[in-house]
Amino acid sequence: MIKNTIILVLLFYGFIFPQSEINTFEKSAFAISYINSSEKNGLEDYWEIQNGFGGYFQTQFYIGEISVGVSLFTFKGLKGKHNNFSSSYIYFSWIGVLKMPLNSSLGAGIKVGTYLMTFSGDTLSIFQKQESELAVSPYAIFSIQVFDPISLNLSGEFITVFTHRPMKFFNISAGVSYAFTTPNWLKRLFK
């Protein structure tokens, strides 16, 4: 209950205290992260998820911040009966950010995207080697600026992939981001 309340408060923070239009698209950031994932939905009997990597591009928006990104994972088939596969979670996200003391921030948002799975195996037809499904994940992130323009990030997310039997994952990630002033040509493209 407390977790859901905190997420809701942070999500609506951006609507209550929107960034001024002057700041829209002024700052952007690139980030990379190492992701530890766990699954608890029955799939662990068939596949073992390996730790992954992710990256995203983020910019200020009229309300909160928006980003596009990708998270990459591999799944190892267990007992030699199941094919290994790799996955790419390609998403668009929105986040409300609360600035905190000591050059830190706390945010919560939502990611929506496609979860692309590519299976290995010589016995699979071309149509069985790839599958793509809708994925949605609420997430929270804590960032602290260690020195301008570098920040350290710690985040958690709960991904639901809408397969016939939904796949659910909880990810914890740690990474680094590099902030910069958005170039004029990119600002014009966004506007």
Features:
mainly beta, Porin
Textual characterization of the structure:
With 191 residues, this protein is mainly beta. The chain has a single domain (2-190), classed as Beta Barrel (Porin), CATH 2.40.160.20. Helix content is 12%, strand content 60%. It contains two helices and nine strands. It has an eight-stranded antiparallel β-barrel. It is elongated and about 55 Å long. The protein starts with a helix and ends with a helix. The relative contact order is 0.20. The model has no long low-confidence stretch (mean pLDDT 84).
Summarize the structure.
With 191 residues, the chain is mainly beta. 12% of the residues lie in helices and 60% in strands. The protein has one domain: Porin (Beta Barrel).
SSE arrangement:
Elements (H helix, E strand, L loop, with lengths): L1 H15 L10 E13 L7 E3 L2 E9 L4 E13 L7 E16 L3 E16 L10 E18 L2 E12 L5 E15 L2 H7 L1
- Give the overall pLDDT as a whole number: 84
Estimate the global geometry from the Cα principal axes. elongated
Question: What number of domains?
Answer: 1
CATH topology: Porin
What level of helicity do the residues show?
10-25%
**Strand count, sense and closure of the main sheet?**
8 strands, antiparallel, barrel
